[in-house]
Amino acid sequence: MSAEWTYDYALIRVVPRVERGEQINVGVILSCVDADFLQCRIDLDETRLRALDPGIDMDGIRDALAIVPVVCAGGAAAGPIGQLPPRGRFRWLVSPRSTIIQMSPVHTGRTSDPAGTLDRLLETMVRTKVLGPKS
After folding, report:
1. Which long-range contacts (CB under 8 A, 24 or more apart) does 58-64 make?
2. How high does pLDDT run on average in the chain?
3. Residue 1's Cα: distance from chain center in Å?
4. Tens digit of pLDDT for each residue in 61-109?
5. Measured between alpha carbons, how far is 106 from 94 in angstroms, rounded to an integer?
6. What are the two backbone dihedrals, phi and then psi, of residue 41, each rounded to the nearest 5 degrees?
7. CB-CB contact of 109 with 6 (8 Å)
8. Among candidate residues 16, 21, 24, 18, the one with its CA nearest the CA of residue 58
9. Res 3: pLDDT
10. CA 112 to chain centre
11. Residue 6 above 80 pLDDT?
């Protein structure tokens, strides 16, 4: 039986017009301290986002989202935040902001496979399934 670790995760959201509060989930950040794991997965559905705001600056959104995996990886490429330990970088990433890119509240779970759990969360919480007509 493999070990189980506690993990924390947050959804990455794009809120194109903060005053309206509409949002779509575009990614997940998962931190598992005991497994020395901090990664994110991002899947931006530009069509859904443009449905909320046809005039959105998609290049700006892509640029802002590209920073998240860099901070997760740490090191010099992430600037001063990259020098923090993984848990500190996670806390910085999920801290509340009133910008277009926002994080959900942090949720907790248990896993023996942090990467697999991150993939599962992306599939169930971010990616949408198109439902066909009922037969």
Report:
1. 60/100, 61/14, 61/100, 61/101, 64/99, 64/100, 64/101
2. 92
3. 29
4. 999 999 999 999 999 999 999 999 999 999 999 998 878 999 999 999 9
5. 7
6. -130, 135
7. yes
8. 16
9. 83
10. 20
11. yes
pLDDT of 133 above 80: no
Nearest to 99 by CA among 9, 23, 2: 23
CA distance 122 to 50: 20
Dihedral-angle region of residue 44 (phi above 0 means left; psi in -120 to 50 means alpha; beta otherwise): beta
Residue 104 has which token pair? 């959900």
Closest CA to 27 of 121, 128, 130, 129: 121
pLDDT above 70 coverage of the chain, percent: 94
- Tell me the one-letter amino acid at 103: M
Query: Cα angle at 125 between 45 and 133, to 5 degrees?
Result: 70
Question: How many residues belong to the chain?
Answer: 135
C-alpha dihedral, 117 to 33 to 85 to 39, nearest 10°: 0
pTM as predicted: 0.90
